[in-house]
Amino acid sequence: MFDIGNYPGVIPSIQRNDSVQGEVYAIKDEALLLSKLDEYEGCSDHTPQPHEYQREIHLIELPNGTSRSAWIYLYTHDIALLKPILTGDYLEYCNHRPQ
Questions:
Q1: How many whole angstroms separate alpha carbon 51 and alpha carbon 3?
Q2: Cα–Cα distance between 29 and 83 in angstroms, integer?
Q3: Residues near 52 by beta carbon (within 8 Å), at least 6 away in sequence
């Protein structure tokens, strides 16, 4: 996870100890909600390229140790100059970063 400015960006990692804190929701009308989320994240089919995020299904681990598939949004731009958020917890990071 990286600090992009006013929001975080997550990229895939091959490091076993890397993790990202997030929330998981059950969705009733997946097509409708995902199209609205894609619009919000700027990665819908009619949003100009290059998209900042890409939605993908990944296997995630829940707090109880079980795993499931979930949609996540991955950051697609260069991270070379971005500050990593090593805890993987954006809310904690925001509460402790200097203003």
A1: 17
A2: 36
A3: 9, 41, 42, 43, 75, 76, 77
Cβ–Cβ contacts within 10 Å for residue 42, how many?
13
Phi, psi at residue 91, to the nearest 5°? -65, -45
Full-model pTM: 0.89
The answer to whether the CB of 53 falls within 8 A of the CB of 72 is: no
Beta bridge partners of 60: 68
pLDDT in tens, 25-73: 999 999 999 999 999 999 999 999 999 999 999 999 998 999 999 999 9
